[in-house]
Amino acid sequence: MLRAHKLAAGEVESHPGANECSQVAGPRLTRETLDMWTSSHPLTRRALLAGSAALPLAPVRAAEPVIVASKIDTEGALIGEMILALLEAAGIPARNRLQLGPTRILRAAILSGAIDLYPEYTGNAAFFFAMDGDPVWKDARAGYECARALDLQRSDLVWLKPAPADNSWVLAMRADFADAHRLATLDDFARWTREAGAVKLAASAEFVESRSGLPAFQETYGFSLGARQLLVLSGGNTSATIKAAADGISGVNAAMAYGTDGALAALGLRALEDTKHAQPVYAPAPVARGLIVQSYPQMAAVLAPAFQTLDVQVLRRLNEQIAIEGREARLVARTYLREHGLLA
């Protein structure tokens, strides 16, 4: 599955441990020009950030519909459809701009007032504020509170309550293979690798090269993979890496994946537990313009109950229904909400 909610390799250089927000100017979008924008380049999970606090915040009138957008991926469409359904059920007028583009486009759009609300991931705030080396992002609660405080202070953006799910990078293996070798955690994987285990990992170039990808796992757990132990695939589409591991292509038995990938269970793969938190936490949360929250103060209470139910297993199952079974995101979202008493 192709994700579009993290920084693309080489797109933005940030400074680890920075104490101040260091935002990078990005494209200016208005509601009038938004319809003219189309994406013409490949997207990756870390296609992040070109937005700027310098972009003007357009005023909002209570009578205007809330413009709801999402990123151009399966999970973005799913959560976006949930938001639309919940707002409409609560009598809050909403306009659908789902699957608008990668993070950098969404960030610029909400800063400029071209959109009002979209689901973001807490870990991305590390890049918005050039703090990707700060350990705060590896703590779910602390990372959310940091993102909430910084964005409210600097951009008048409100981070509403996040889901408990974590959609960070993971290493996954075929379940039967993992069981045979007693591999349940990344500690197990590292030990097995150091003892000359026959590892062959399918991953994107971005994951292999980015310091927050494979190097972070290797440093945290004390193992190292050589070039012959890697099958590097172009792009950031995890459906290709997961399939390579499931089918044993070129001897692959491990894959780069994302925590809520719908293809994992469908293809018989298991994510190894990151017990030492090598990765930042990427919890999905609604982010809204401050003015729109003032106009519709009931919005937080409307969305919070649904987001509280979205853990990793739930999102994997719902993503699988869309990505593997081919069901429409709108139908999957509304069916889930009705089944859990969140939508009449």
Write up what this structure looks like.
The protein is an alpha/beta fold. It folds into 2 domains: 31-166 and 282-339, Periplasmic binding protein-like II (D-Maltodextrin-Binding Protein, domain 2), CATH 3.40.190; 169-271, D-Maltodextrin-Binding Protein, domain 2, CATH 3.40.190. It has 15 helices and 10 strands. It has helices spanning 31-34, 74-89, 103-112, 125-128, 140-155, 175-180, 186-194, 205-209, 214-221, 238-247, 263-266, 290-295, 299-308, 312-323, 329-339; strands at residues 66-71, 94-101, 117-121, 157-159, 169-174, 201-204, 230-233, 254-258, 269-271, 284-289. β1 (66-71), α2 and β2 form a beta-alpha-beta unit.
What's the short version?
With 344 residues, the chain is α/β, with parallel strands linked by helices. It is 38% helix and 15% strand.
Tell me the name of the CATH homologous superfamily of the largest domain.
Periplasmic binding protein-like II
Q: Please, what is the oligomeric state?
A: single chain
Question: Would you identify the CATH architecture of the largest domain?
Answer: 3-Layer(aba) Sandwich
What percentage of amino acids are in beta strands? 5-15%
Alpha plus pi helix count? 15
Major β-sheet strand ordering: 7-6-8-5-9
- Main beta-sheet strand count, sense and barrel state: 5 strands, mixed
CATH class of the largest domain: Alpha Beta
The assigned structural class equals alpha/beta
Average pLDDT taken over every residue = 85
The gyration radius over C-alpha positions equals 20 Å
CATH topology of the largest domain: D-Maltodextrin-Binding Protein, domain 2
Helix content: 25-40%
What is the number of domains?
Answer: 2
| Poorly predicted segments | 7-62
User: What is the H/E string?
Assistant: HEHEHEHHEEHHEHHEHEHEEHHHH
Number of strands: 10
Give the termini distance in whole angstroms.
31 Å
Choose one word for the global shape.
Answer: globular
